[in-house]
Recover the amino acids of this structure.
């Protein structure tokens, strides 16, 4: 249970800059930011390795990831300027940590995306 890199961050076994927490979700800064703001939001409970592994019962938890990112964006004052949320799934998306997580990118115009 939770025996992933992000599980160890959730259990505070390895350090991270934690910027958001509620009952279900932890948000912390990405160690290799791809934008001025780059925060990862992860579920604190049972590990879902990829979006493809998620079940209908986990729909609410996945929605909580989105709402946590939106709440953080409002709190930090960049919601009106805008931001991007991304969830990578497996090899072609470049997923490297198999503990489902949402990337929040913000802080500057992000340009177009989707080009390989
Ligand atoms: P993925 O590529 O799986 O969608 O995203 C994994 C993210 O985790 C990457 O953006 C990577 O920079 C970040 N990451 C990898 N190792 C660590 C770490 O030890 N601490 C933090 N805060 N982020 C990490």
């Amino acid at each position: 249970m939770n025996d992933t890199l992000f599980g160890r961050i959730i259990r505070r076994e390895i350090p991270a800059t934690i910027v958001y927490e509620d009952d279900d979700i932890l948000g912390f800064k990405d160690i290799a930011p791809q934008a001025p703001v780059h925060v990862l939001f992860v579920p604190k409970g049972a590990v879902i390795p990829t979006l493809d592994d998620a079940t209908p019962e986990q729909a609410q938890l996945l929605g909580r990831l989105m709402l946590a990112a939106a709440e953080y964006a409002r709190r930090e004052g960049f919601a009106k300027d805008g931001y991007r949320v991304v969830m990578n799934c497996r090899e072609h998306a470049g997923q490297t940590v198999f503990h489902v997580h949402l990337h929040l990118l913000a802080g500057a115009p992000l340009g177009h995306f989707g080009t390989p």
